[in-house]
Amino acid sequence: MENVSRILETRELQDKHTGENIWNAAKAILEEFGAWCSNNIYTTDNAANMKLAMRQQTWLGCAGHNLNLVLSHTLRDQTPNPDDDPGQEDFMTDIFQLISVCKTIIAHVKRSRIQEVQLDTTVATRWNSILTVGACQCR
Prior knowledge:
Elements: H1 19-32, E1 41-44, H2 48-53, E2 58-61, H3 63-74, H4 88-112, H5 129-134
Parallel strand pairs: 1-2
């Protein structure tokens, strides 16, 4: 069996973003497209209202979102204590410098219009964008 991912619709939810309202809107879209099935498996972020919306369904937390949260917290600019791990400060400095250099290169290539493929930097809310950028996928 092959996993399939589809975006059926993107709509603004005018009502309060409660679990019940989110589920009602999602189910209405699924029914509209003939995609409602009792054995669907849903993947969302891990927000409490999304978990609540999917409480009666088979639900998985998004691994990309989880990874993004871990990396966001890990790479936050913190002042490491060299007494805890003497190499930690150099390691984090190297990571921040690498990310900065990559962003600078991408910005330069975009400004110069010499690119043959679409280059993108990562976007925090596009959880798998780091994987897409890292894999050099074209659009």
